[in-house]
Amino acid sequence: MYKRPITSDEVFLNIPYDEDFEPLYLAFIAGLAGFGLVPHAVLEIPTSERRLDRIFSLIGKCGMSFHDLSRVELDRKQPKTPRFNMPFELGLVVALQRKWMRMRSHQWYVFEAKAHRAEKSLSDIKGTEIFIHDGTPLGVLRQLANLLIRRQQQPTLVELQAILLELNKAAVRTQKELHVKSLFEPRVFVDLVNAAIEIARRRVKSLSP
């Protein structure tokens, strides 16, 4: 599997892995790549290590993390349960940032589909700005543009949409080539990130060498 050197542009992506979330998943990858960032997720490292060890390792290598808490509703499978992985991983980041000296500069951001719901479902984060994407890919791109306004690379919303459009097509090709149904597989994730980075370098003027 292709490995990149770790840089300050590496970011941790904490999102739900389910089919309904795929459009937003692609939007996060496309949007982050448009700002010159390299997304990482736990699913990209298929090893025998415990999941928590993999999470700690990834978080420690990243300068920022993006946490989507929009899947707090009950899922469809029996027994119906809410998703706790995303708030749990957010809690790990917050704790590590306060305790681990070399992570003091780590920046973390919280996303939701509905306003005020995160403050109700996770009241401990009251006072934290929540970025509401309305459950749409365009909403994800718009909110990434809002929170990354201080980045040197500043793609336009039109450029971000163009990256996402190409990435959607690349995702279809990747699924056919790898004969997989889900986009939430290690090889697929890495291929999508690489594709998004290549597309972004062509589409975003501020990323041009």
* Fraction in beta strands: 5-15%
Indicate the overall shape: globular
List the total number of helices: 7
Fraction of helical residues: 40-55%
Specify the CATH architecture: 3-Layer(aba) Sandwich
Structural class: alpha/beta
Strand order in space, largest sheet: 2-1-3-4-5
Query: Tell me about the biggest sheet?
Result: 5 strands, parallel
Q: Which fold name is given in CATH as the topology?
A: Rossmann fold
Keywords:
209 residues, 45% helix, disordered N terminus, single chain, 11% strand, globular, alpha/beta, Rossmann fold, five-stranded parallel beta sheet
What does this structure look like?
By secondary structure, the chain is α/β, with parallel strands linked by helices. The protein has one domain (10-204): Rossmann fold (3-Layer(aba) Sandwich), CATH 3.40.50. 45% of the residues lie in helices and 11% in strands. Strands 2-1-3-4-5 form a 5-stranded parallel sheet, with helices on both faces. Helix 3 (85-99) links the parallel strand 3 (64-68) and strand 4 (107-112). The radius of gyration is 16 Å and the shape is globular. The relative contact order is 0.18.
